[in-house]
Amino acid sequence: MSSIRTLTLYNFNTSYSFGIKDPVVEKDPSVTSRLARMKDTYEKEGIRKTVEAIIIVHDHGHPHILLLQIGNSFFKLPGGKLKPGESEIDGLQRKLTKKLLPIGSNESETPWEIGDHVSTWWRPNFEPSIYPYITPHTTKPKECKKLYVVTLPEKCTFAVPSNLTLRAVPLFEIYNNATRYGSIISCVPQLISRYNFVYLNVD
């Protein structure tokens, strides 16, 4: 039986500083166009491989997850698509650095402490539905998405595009709330319940 890991979490509001950078243009104006682009890419490269980070911090002694908010209602875990032949860890480092750190940040000196791979999700078809298992009769899934737990050091500076917002959302708000956050994010509290947390506050 494996031992329960302990993760040290720092206060989101007192440990970290925040900046902004130029807005990013969304490649797809709608879910339909995103799935159409996914189909085109699949025909050239095969299965889409993506990695996303469950970045854990705390506020008032309760775990929070960092989410990127687009507009008023859409939330996503930071991460993205791997390049062909790129490893999952390298790809996640690259995506987090590009999306969350100031321009010019060195990828070899990033603050991300990438830990356990805790979940794998599969998209059977070019449709919105995605599952934490390969569905029956699916021989060629169209996307494989892997989630990694990521913790932060005592200090770092974030910078996100001006058309996005970085939110620290408490577990109690996410839990069982697929209507607002989607099937993957709403499962995060269960995925990280295996850990013990130590909460530190730094002035």
Automatic annotation (TrEMBL):
GO MF, any single term: mRNA binding
InterPro entries xrefs: Cleav_polyA_spec_factor_su5, NUDIX_hydrolase-like_dom_sf, NUDIX_hydrolase_dom
Pfam families attached to this UniProt entry: NUDIX_2
Protein name (Swiss-Prot/TrEMBL): Cleavage and polyadenylation specificity factor subunit 5
Lineage: Eukaryota, Amoebozoa, Evosea, Eumycetozoa, Dictyostelia
Compartments, record wording: Nucleus; Cytoplasm
An example Gene Ontology CC term for this record: cytoplasm
Annotated Gene3D superfamilies: Nucleoside Triphosphate Pyrophosphohydrolase
Function of the molecule: Component of the cleavage factor Im (CFIm) complex that functions as an activator of the pre-mRNA 3'-end cleavage and polyadenylation processing required for the maturation of pre-mRNA into functional mRNAs. CFIm contributes to the recruitment of multiprotein complexes on specific sequences on the pre-mRNA 3'-end, so called cleavage and polyadenylation signals (pA signals). Most pre-mRNAs contain multiple pA signals, resulting in alternative cleavage and polyadenylation (APA) producing mRNAs with variable 3'-end formation.
Native source organism of the sequence: Polysphondylium violaceum
Top-level taxonomic group: Eukaryota
CDD domains: NUDIX_Cfim25_Nudt21
Subunit-structure text: Homodimer (via N- and C-terminus); binds RNA as homodimer. Component of the cleavage factor Im (CFIm) complex.
